[in-house]
């Protein structure tokens, strides 16, 4: 990515543009580059901010979805941001949901894509063959509809991460926290506008998960992206961005 990571007061983040603030939340194995097409599309009209969630930095005994939500709260206060649009993929969506339940006054709207919080079929409870590059490649390809989206660079990054013992322990701790933290009984509390933008071929958080989110979130819309897996903003960025733009125009440009 061409954007510089800013480090201030214990926070790391990228930001670009001016206007209403969009806060992009990456997933468990997500990179900032996952959002590159979103930044490019919206930086001329919006203030786009991507905090790096401290999955590898927080004390492991407190690591979990709620800890990341508290971190997001501290970050927004540090940046003096209010009434933001939270846009989260996978674990990032889950963090956005937990934060919104606790601090709905900070959030104008929420966008979820492949969000955890109800059910996910991820790596599971372990990486039984993490030393095998082909096994990791297969697992990364599982995330997408088109296996070619799992570039060598992406697979290399995941392979390096899961073969770092400290990091893999944190990833598994975080994944277990997300699975345990089912939000089905809390979603009715969220009354702000929500856009669900979901891959029709998502095998990690399948289409029925999106349907359940839609039924449980009282002010939600559901948009399908065909020939797309768990990360629509990466695999079908133009379609994702078109849905996002229509939603933002509706809620912000009234």
Order of strands across the biggest sheet?
Answer: 1-2-4-3-5-6-7-8
Q: Sheet bearing the most strands, described?
A: 8 strands, mixed
Give the ordered list of helices and strands.
EEEHEHEHEHHHEHEHH
Structural class: alpha/beta
**Average of the residue pLDDT scores:** 92
Q: What is the correct CATH architecture?
A: 3-Layer(aba) Sandwich
**N→C terminal distance:** 33 Å
Total domain units: 1
Q: What is the fourth-level CATH superfamily?
A: Alpha/Beta hydrolase fold, catalytic domain
CA-based shape: globular
State Rg: 17 Å
**How much helix is in the residues?**
25-40%
Q: Helical region count?
A: 9
Instruction: Compute the number of strand runs.
Output: 8
Oligomer category: single chain
Beta fraction of the residues? 15-25%
Which runs of at least 5 residues are low in confidence (pLDDT < 50)?
Answer: none
CATH topology (fold) name: Rossmann fold
CATH hierarchy class name: Alpha Beta
Keywords: Hydrolase
Organism: Pedobacter petrophilus
GO molecular function, one term: hydrolase activity
InterPro entries: AB_hydrolase_1, AB_hydrolase_fold
Q: How would you portray this structure in words?
A:
By secondary structure, this protein is an alpha/beta fold. It has one domain: Rossmann fold (3-Layer(aba) Sandwich), CATH 3.40.50.1820. An 8-stranded mixed sheet has the order 1-2-4-3-5-6-7-8, sandwiched between helices. β7, α7 and β8 form a beta-alpha-beta unit. The chain starts with 5 loop residues before the first strand and ends with a helix. The relative contact order is 0.16.
């Amino acid at each position: 990515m061409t954007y510089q990571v800013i480090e201030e007061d214990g926070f790391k983040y990228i930001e670009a543009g001016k206007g209403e603030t969009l806060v992009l939340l990456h997933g468990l194995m997500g990179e900032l580059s996952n959002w590159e097409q979103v930044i490019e599309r919206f930086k001329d009209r919006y203030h786009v901010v991507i905090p790096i969630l401290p999955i590898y930095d927080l004390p492991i005994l407190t690591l979990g979805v709620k800890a990341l939500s508290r971190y997001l709260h501290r970050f927004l206060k540090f940046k003096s941001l209010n009434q933001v649009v939270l846009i989260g993929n996978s674990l990032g969506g889950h963090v956005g949901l937990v934060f919104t339940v606790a601090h709905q006054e900070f959030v104008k709207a929420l966008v979820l894509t492949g969000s955890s919080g109800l059910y996910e079929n991820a790596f599971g409870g372990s990486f039984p063959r993490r030393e095998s590059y082909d096994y990791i490649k297969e697992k990364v390809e599982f995330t997408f509809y088109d296996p070619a989206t799992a570039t060598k660079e992406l697979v290399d990054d995941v392979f390096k991460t899961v073969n770092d013992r400290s990091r893999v322990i944190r990833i598994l701790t975080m994944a277990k926290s997300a699975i345990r933290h089912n939000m089905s009984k809390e979603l009715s509390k969220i009354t702000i506008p929500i856009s669900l933008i979901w891959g029709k071929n998502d095998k990690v958080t399948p289409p029925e998960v999106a349907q359940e989110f839609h039924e449980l979130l009282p002010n939600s819309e559901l948009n399908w992206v065909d020939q797309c897996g768990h990360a629509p903003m990466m695999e079908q960025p133009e379609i994702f961005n078109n849905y996002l733009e229509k939603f933002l125009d509706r809620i912000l440009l009234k």
